[in-house]
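Many introductory courses stop at the sequence. We go one step further.
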Amino acid sequence: MSEELKVLEDAIRKASEIVVKGDRSAKEKGTAIGTYDVVTGSDVLAEESIISTIREAFPDDAIISEETNPDQGIEHRSWTIDPIDGTMNYSRGIPFFGMQGSFMVDGVPKASAIYLPVFDEMFTASEDGAFLNGVPIHTADPAPLKKCLVSTGDFSRRSQQFRDAQAAIFHDCYTDIARFKVFGAASVDFSYLAAGRLDVHVRFLNKIWDFMPGMHIAEKAGAVYDKSLVDEHGILVMCSSQEVLQEASEKMVPKFISIFRRA
């Protein structure tokens, strides 16, 4: 285990005491018109705790964090921190939320951790692979899309175009798969994909602290995705295997990507 991963794990576990026992009362965040997002007292305190632990070990590194340093740019050595991913769930007592972070060198993830405190599950990734509580994990075996569980993020509020695309995913793609799941937390989606509990995860990429840890862990566990789809449209279709990705690309992607081509 690298020193960076050890520090990240320790920082998240330490801050998890604040989250589990902390203030879940939600206050509305200042966001774009027509959107609704919340923050709790625990978000801020947990983030401060994680940053403090990292700073003690690596005082010169850049830290990109949701609540206090969202505009920090990526530098040679950078960290991403999301103290509570799935804050809405957390504030309502829904157990699907996580704490996550990653360490990057020149924008490339080298160590990542996601902790689901209600379930005491620590997912990590490093050059050695992906792990759950220290035990190696891998994505699910290839399966026909009709037998696949697919998760997607909450409905996008970024634009009407993204909302239309997500509606198409649910409506037009439903006959192609076994079931959709919406957990409301990227940390859960990516962790479950990495551990073989899901087969496909579809989301729109936005803030780096939301997706970087999970993408890294899932990829190290064997997940694959179409980079051109990410680069061109900011859409991630991450699958448990190349076989599943090929079928999803043939059957699912054309049904929602056409919305972007029409715009």
